Amino acid sequence: MLVIPVIDVRHGLAVRAQGGRRAAYRPLETPLAAGSDPAAIAQGLMSLFAFPMLYVADLDGIEGRGRNAMLPDRLFEALPGVGLWIDDGASPQEAAARLQVASPATPVVGTESIRSDVDLKALRALPPERYVLSLDFSADHFEGPVSILGDAACWPDRIIVMTLQRVGSAEGPDLARLKDIIARAGDRSVFAAGGVRDCADVEALAKVGAAGVLVASALHAKKITAGDLEMIAGR
């Protein structure tokens, strides 16, 4: 089970998620770092555990305000050797362009950012091993074209099941939804995101077949500790 820490960035600062209500997100306060600078938060997370991967949601890009263009370089400088998954609202066409220039960051394409048949065609043309698809859900609503949700053949090798209203909510992960996606995903790796409270939730996700989990609040609140992370990594 791979635990991937998450940093949400809004107006250039790391913020604390509040059940997917992005307008309510406020600068993150954490015992792992002083202030809300994303690079400092990233280093604080790595002081807790040697995570191989970091997931970043650039909410400025996702919400259409303009991306934090220097953020990937700053994070790579702060965390040499750590992989980076970035969701910044990129369309499949933009993801394809980034793959052409061999960026070290792995693009995450969120279904909430897919809006047209042209986007769908471009998504299906992306190399499945080189990007991550985030299947985005808000409450009981799928955020994106329903044809993507219904056609597992267009899913890449790695999929995130993102339950937006549970992000930062401490409600627990949506196991039923995750089990459904895993059942249809074949040999693809499925990652859970949203609602993870503690190590017991991570264990429950592993039991239903999740390859990994995206976590933020539980790390900052010390509900998942360095010892827990060592135990999870050793399984």
Label this structure with key terms:
10 helices, eight-stranded parallel barrel, globular, 33% helix, alpha/beta, TIM Barrel, 235 residues
Rg estimate, integer Å: 16 Å
> Average pLDDT value?
93
Ranges with pLDDT <50 over ≥5 residues? none
Content-based structural category: alpha/beta
Global shape: globular
- Neighbour order of strands in the largest sheet: 1-4-5-6-7-9-10-11
Number of domains: 1
CATH topology: TIM Barrel
The oligomeric status of these chains comes to single chain
Q: In CATH, what is the homologous superfamily?
A: Aldolase class I
Helical percentage: 25-40%
Strand content: 15-25%
Instruction: Please tally the β strands and state the result.
Output: 11
Query: At CATH's second level, what is the architecture?
Result: Alpha-Beta Barrel
If helices are DSSP runs of H or I spanning 4 or more residues, what is the number of helices? Answer: 10
Largest sheet: 8 strands, parallel, barrel
Secondary-structure element series: EEEHEHHEHEHEEHEHEHEHH
Describe this structure in words.
The protein has an eight-stranded parallel beta barrel with strand order 1-4-5-6-7-9-10-11, surrounded by six helices. The longest helix is centred in the first third of the chain and has 11 residues, at 38-48. The chain has helices at residues 38-48, 59-62, 71-78, 92-100, 117-125, 146-150, 175-185, 199-207, 217-220, 226-233; strands at residues 2-10, 13-16, 26-27, 53-58, 83-87, 106-110, 132-138, 141-142, 158-163, 189-193, 212-215. Strand 5, helix 4 and strand 6 (106-110) form a beta-alpha-beta unit. With 235 residues, the chain is α/β, with parallel strands linked by helices. Helix 1 runs parallel beside helix 3 (71-78). It contains ten helices and eleven strands. The protein has one domain (2-233): TIM Barrel. It is 33% helix and 23% strand.
